[in-house]
Amino acid sequence: MTTSTLAIESDDVAGHYDDLDDYYRLLWGEHLHHGFWETGRESLPEAIDALIRRVARPLNLDAGAEVCDVGCGYGGTSRFLAAESGFQMTGLTISERQHAYALAKSEGDNPRILLRNWEENGFEDASFDGLVSLECIAHVVHKDRYFEEIARVLKPGARACITAWLTAEDAGPTADRWLLEPICREGRLPGMGTPSEYTALAEAAGLRVLKYEDVTRQVRRTWRICLRRVVTCLLFTPTGWRFLLSAKSRHAIFVLSVARILIAYYTGSMKYGVFEFEKPVD
Fold it and tell me: How crowded is residue 127: how many other Cβ atoms within 10 Å of its Cβ?
């Protein structure tokens, strides 16, 4: 597990997203996750939708199923699955500004968006027919609790699918020092685990691991696009310059990690994986 040398708590993560809210929406829109290029010919919006469909497919659920979206951000995934699959979605975010945006974009009571920490979610046992979580776990302080709560709130026989930023099993000290640890510290990630570490934590929580898939090659183009947008923002928009140089922006250094992430993906020291789990039937 690569961990940040700076102690990071959930309030720090929330502050990161609140502080960078305008910037994130400028660069990413309402979906704060990677795109998934199955053929390589997809547009970015098509690739973003493809990743959502990739995580929803293993749930094997019909319309009306109760599905939880852990770390829902602006609620884009929850809105997509509510509209396309007919799931009854419940999304959780710890960012006040993300929560406010998600509420403003939602119509009716589906999806239901909550301002709530997953580690203390307050749901009843066996509340959900399925669960998705896109790129959330790296921001979670207690990763064992993350999986324990997934196992607790799922109904017996229900499935979960998560995507995760990962460190390679064989990432060396050089990659850790210059790429992985700074990515954690600058991006307010308490830690980033390997595929085997997350598999072990899920199994210890009582989940059955059905599948793990390394999809780094299918998603890493996201960061070429993001880097191009960052450069464009810096060079051609006064708003971008003012924001990045503002003393009020405590988290603006994260833009430096955009290049680190791209390098980490292409050197193989950072991975992107999809995990499929099932809660066993007693």
Answer: 17
Distance between start and end Cα atoms, the chain: 32
Residue 118 in 3-state DSSP?
helix
Q: Using alpha carbons only, what angle is made at residue 59 by residues 188 and 39, rounded to the nearest 5 degrees?
A: 75
Mean pLDDT, the chain cut into blocks of 10 residues (282 residues total) = 94 86 73 89 93 97 98 95 97 96 90 97 98 97 98 98 97 94 92 98 98 97 85 69 58 71 95 98 88
Hey, what amino acid is at 273?
G
* Amino acid symbol at 245: L
The answer for residues whose C-beta is within 8 angstroms of residue 8's C-beta and 6 or more apart is 141, 184, 185, 188, 189, 190
For residue 248 the two structure tokens come to 């009020």
As a whole number of angstroms, the distance between CA 136 and CA 43 comes to 24
Q: Which residue has the tokens 């919006």?
A: 45
Three-state SS at 91:
strand
95 Cβ contact partners less than 8 Å away, ≥ 6 residues apart: 14, 17, 18, 21, 73
pTM: 0.93
Burial class (CB in 10 A: 0-12, 13-18, 19+), 152: middle
Number of structural domains (the chain) is 1
Domain that holds residue 95: 2-278
CATH of the domain at 42: 3.40.50.150
CA distance 49 to 64: 20
Residues 91/72, Cβ–Cβ less than 8 Å:
yes
